């Protein structure tokens, strides 16, 4: 008798048949936010192909093309669709290139904080005792200080200790570190709470009895049961990380003017807001709002979809 073996469905097929995908398709605001964020990310990635100039190339800037208004205003010129700033930098090019920097810094800082927080939270929850006390007290110290103050302190120390030639080169890694250092505590506390519950269950006790290595128990047994709240927190913190980068750059301790992120562009444009050059600050601000809004909408949907109590 022939037995037909049913092929195992692929990951993509399992995803399309999952409750998470059904919830996404039934959530119009989540679809809108995903499309908006994807469009922003795609245009930022393809910025060298769709923008009229490289805003980071100072040799390409021409002062006689400075302070040109948007194309629909009197005096607007093609190809400067959104106008130019006081240095002749195309605003559309600067916004797209700046969005790429802001997205990269926000994503990298979230990943760094997530990795550190997961590792420390698992260690604290699994081993407990003095290890848990040391990790959590360090986290409490960080939580007792304002987020922006810690970030400014880290950037100031790094800038003061680095040679002049390396400050601008390492501006992005310094920002990533400054945002990630105070952010890992939230992930660690969330994972610690879940790990303490999972560590007392029978399957973890059985793994300990047969002398399974601690790192295997933490990674293969405890961690998968802690990922749901972490995914939601990481998504929401992505938007906060982008806002933090913009805040630091706006305060002058972020990206340099020759490599402007959205926060740097807003800081530069704010100086000319009351002189009639409104487009220099408005368009970077709108782009920043769209990014953070789309990320927060996706985070809200993900929280509702992964929490059975809210269904």
What can you tell me about this protein's structure?
With 311 residues, this protein is an all-alpha fold. The chain has one domain (83-310): MetI-like fold. It is 68% helix and 0% strand. It has helices at 11-16, 19-25, 28-45, 47-50, 91-127, 129-143, 147-161, 164-167, 171-180, 184-199, 202-209, 214-222, 227-250, 262-270, 279-306. Helix 5 packs across helix 13 (227-250) and helix 10 runs antiparallel to helix 13 (227-250). The longest helix has 37 residues, at 91-127. The two termini are 46 Å apart.
What brief labels describe this structure?
mainly alpha; 15 helices; globular; MetI-like_sf; transmembrane
Terminal CA distance = 46 Å
The averaged pLDDT comes out at 80
Considering DSSP H and I runs of 4 or more, what fraction of the residues is helical? 55-70%
Net shape = globular
**Rg estimate, integer Å:** 24 Å
- As for the CATH topology, it is MetI-like fold
Total number of distinct structural domains: 1
CATH homologous superfamily, by name? MetI-like
The helix/strand order is HHHHHHHHHHHHHHH
What is the total tally of β strands? 0
Beta-strand percentage?
A: under 5%
Largest sheet: none
Which regions contain 5 or more consecutive residues with pLDDT less than 50?
Answer: none
Overall CATH architecture: Orthogonal Bundle
CATH class: Mainly Alpha
């Amino acid at each position: 008798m022939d037995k037909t073996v049913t092929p195992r469905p692929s990951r993509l097929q399992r995803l399309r048949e999952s409750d998470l995908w059904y919830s996404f398709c039934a959530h119009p605001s989540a679809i809108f936010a995903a499309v908006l964020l994807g469009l922003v990310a795609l245009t930022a990635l393809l910025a060298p192909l769709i923008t009229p100039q490289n805003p980071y190339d100072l040799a390409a800037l021409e002062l006689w093309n400075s302070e040109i208004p948007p194309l629909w205003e009197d005096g607007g010129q093609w190809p400067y669709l959104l106008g130019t700033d006081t240095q002749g930098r195309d605003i559309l090019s600067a916004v797209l290139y700046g969005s790429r920097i802001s997205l990269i810094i926000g994503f990298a800082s979230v990943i760094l904080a997530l990795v550190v927080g997961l590792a420390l939270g698992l260690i604290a929850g699994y081993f407990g005792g003095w290890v848990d006390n040391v990790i959590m007290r360090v986290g409490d110290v960080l939580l007792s200080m304002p987020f922006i103050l810690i970030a400014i302190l880290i950037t100031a120390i790094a800038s003061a200790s680095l040679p002049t030639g390396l400050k601008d080169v390492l501006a992005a890694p310094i920002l990533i570190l400054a945002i990630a250092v105070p952010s890992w505590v939230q992930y660690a506390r969330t994972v610690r709470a879940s790990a303490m519950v999972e560590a007392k269950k029978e399957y973890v006790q059985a793994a300990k009895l047969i002398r399974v290595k601690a790192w295997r128990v933490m990674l293969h047994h405890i961690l998968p049961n802690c990922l749901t709240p972490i995914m939601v927190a990481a998504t929401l913190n992505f938007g906060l990380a982008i806002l933090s980068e913009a805040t630091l750059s706006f305060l002058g301790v972020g990206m340099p003017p020759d490599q402007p992120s959205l926060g740097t562009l807003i800081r530069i444009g704010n100086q000319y807001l009351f002189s009639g050059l409104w487009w220099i600050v408005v368009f970077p601000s709108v782009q920043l709002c769209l990014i953070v809004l789309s990320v927060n909408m996706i985070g809200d949907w993900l929280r509702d979809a992964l929490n059975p109590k809210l269904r």
